[in-house]
Amino acid sequence: MDKKTRDELIAKADKLLKYETDKVITWCSGCGNYGIQNALARALVLEGKERKDFALFFDIGCSGNGSDKFEANTLHGLHGRIISTAAGAALANDKMKVIAFAGDGATFSEGVGHLVHGVRNNFPMVFVHHNNENYGLTIGQASSTTRLGAKMNGTPGGVSIEPINTLEFVLSLNPTFVARGFSGDVDHLTELFRMAMRHKGFAYLEILQSCPTYNRLTTEDWYASRVKYVEDLKGYDRHDIWAAKKLVQDMDKEIYLGLIYENIEKKDFLSLQTNREGVKTSLVEEVKHYDVRDLI
Ligand SMILES: Cc1ncc(C[n+]2csc(CCOP(=O)(O)OP(=O)(O)O)c2C)c(N)n1
Hints:
By secondary structure, this protein is of the alpha/beta class. 31% of the residues lie in helices and 15% in strands. The chain has ten helices and eight strands. An eight-stranded mixed β-sheet has the order 2-1-3-4-6-5-8-7, with helices on both faces. Strand 5, helix 7 and strand 6 (203-208) form a beta-alpha-beta unit. The structure holds thiamine diphosphate. Thiamine diphosphate (TPP) binds next to helix 4.
């Protein structure tokens, strides 16, 4: 992309972001959430999405506080429950791209059951896992993705329980789209957002995110010196689930980013509803309109 086109893109994307409002910004300086929202805004612009074309669903947490910084249809839900809320919206209105966001606490503790069934049902939505490896908003407790030995508020002597290998977990559920990005590489993350938006089923996009205030182990530099790109792996077949499972084993030395696994054969939940087979219209077009003004 030449500089002029890139500047135009950034200017358009910036219009979606509303940092200059009276809403207090609760993100710390250097928080990975800024990079993530910039990438999201750019991806939406590049995919030609207008405000009516998408809805954003935010869980509780620092990540969730992105809901009041985006010029769009947004909903801020309950902790750990955003996948079910967003899935309902995605099934009710297939004309809208539904994107949901949650932290590692919400995704792999409070809401892990919703994640399992979101993947298993292959709901037509994008799910973004902000993995800052701690409970950020409640000031830095260890989560189920915090690494062994990390000294956190609440476990100052160091975490003694092994973290969940998140991608291995998701790959065990027979998913249709698994990708991983890094908040410090906005250009690459923008492309991952675009791919996830084009996917028809449940797109799981994990983002390695620095948390400069509470996670002093996995800093921006820690990630930057370890991340590698699947695009650079000669002969890597992203349709091979065993290759994907092998690739995600290493969580410490060579951490791969990119579209790690994709299955385009498996149908999404909505397409599988047999009662709708042969129906030419969509659910949105079949909604009956009632004039309720006289009742109010
Ligand atoms: C059911 C429930 N349990 C706990 C809380 C308290 N709580 C609010 S924010 C938060 C931490 C969120 O951490 P995470 O999901 O990792 O997101 P982050 O803040 O790191 O983005 C917790 C535990 C809550 N609001 N609801």
